[in-house]
Amino acid sequence: MENELHDHRPQTSDTKPNTDHADALIRENRRITIKELGAMLSISVGSVEDIMKYHLQYRKVNAWWVPCTLMDVNKMVQMQVASCLLQQFEDEGDAFLKSTVTTDETWVHYFIPESQQSSREWRHTSSPKPKRARRSRSAGKVMATFFWDWQGVIHVDFLTDARTVNAAYYSDLLATDVKEKIRSKWKRGGTGSLPSRQCTPPYGQNNGNPPEIKMEPSDASAVQS
């Protein structure tokens, strides 16, 4: 079977050499643009798009956002901590979950406008739509640190006075405000406790070896960082 003779222009852009060259350029620079590829291959943008879509089957995607990138030693420490917590859960069951206190930080703006969803109203189809001025979040904001257990929020700390969230900040917070809130909760008849966690010096201060994580039973008389 052969193609019939025709007077159309021969295929000069969508060819295997151009496809291979485009593939090599993309592998060298994953962020290269369609226009840059077209200029380097001396072909049109439409031809580059056809090569990318139908031959190489590439598509441009956004990077997956993560809170932070961890080094191998950080991943090892997290795995050791997770293994210790899992083992403690297997030993104690639900009692361990009820003795766990979790913390997290978030930015709190001084003013947060009403959302589009919360401003919705029930109206008849013939009624005019309500109007509201467009407003944005305030530039001023403060960092809030939350501590909570299985029953709810235990303590909220707002980062003021030019303080910084670091190990010293958490150590002071756990030994003072959070400790007192947990004791007050026990006096009111609440349950749960904050398990003490002891770690060896950080990596680099332990003769070059990764730190060993040791978990100890909960101590109702003290809260240790």
UniProtKB/TrEMBL annotation:
UniProt GO MF annotations: nucleic acid binding
Polar residues bias: where?
193-209
One Pfam family named in its UniProt record: Transposase_1
Native source species: Cryptotermes secundus
- Region of interest: Disordered: 1-23, 185-225
**Descriptive protein name:** Uncharacterized protein
